[in-house]
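tool_call: predict_structure(chain=1)
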Amino acid sequence: MELSKLIARDLLSIGAVFFRPEEPFTWASGIKSPVYCDNRLTLTAPAVRLDVEEGLASVVRAEYPDAEVLMGTSTAGIAHAAITAHLMGLPMGYVRSGAKDHGRQNQIEGKLEAGQKVVVIEDLISTGGSVLEVVNVLREAGAEVLGIASIFTYGMKKGIARLAEAKVKNVSLTDFDTVAKVAAEENYIRPEDIARLIAFRDNPSDESWIGGGK
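tool_result:
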């Protein structure tokens, strides 16, 4: 089975990506969303976790063959970076959302030398803001960031534009469109809901998709 469909099926099977177009979730930003995504649930589902980590390892090998270090985003990307690095026999570390206020006051945890080729491991990409902060911290530390390997991306225009502007490549195991299609095929949602989901993805601030776009 194609990797993107396999991961989509996995995420749906454990409720890591959960669609509820009739009863939207409300994000912290106030945006109403037909989807809830919590990839942390993969950590407590060993079979799915293995698919995810082997998938991330295959992405790093194929897309970033010169990778020397994997760096997880804090906090959701840390475990995935650790397990993927273990599978690949690579060093890993992670980047805090801010520098510690005690000890050595590190923001980057783990040994990182200037010039090392790094791949950032992220669980979820929406608007791209948080992962780009991590990329910037690593670049400022002298690392050569080859790109990002992530589990899931919404494919939102804002996120794609931000990554392009920062000249950062991202390769995700699966994406919003694939998960929506598999969700319809396996009766998590109705086929007619796909257009509503894509309308949300294309313009999250436009709530006309709620109620079938009437």
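agent: The longest strand covers residues 144-153. Proceeding to next step.
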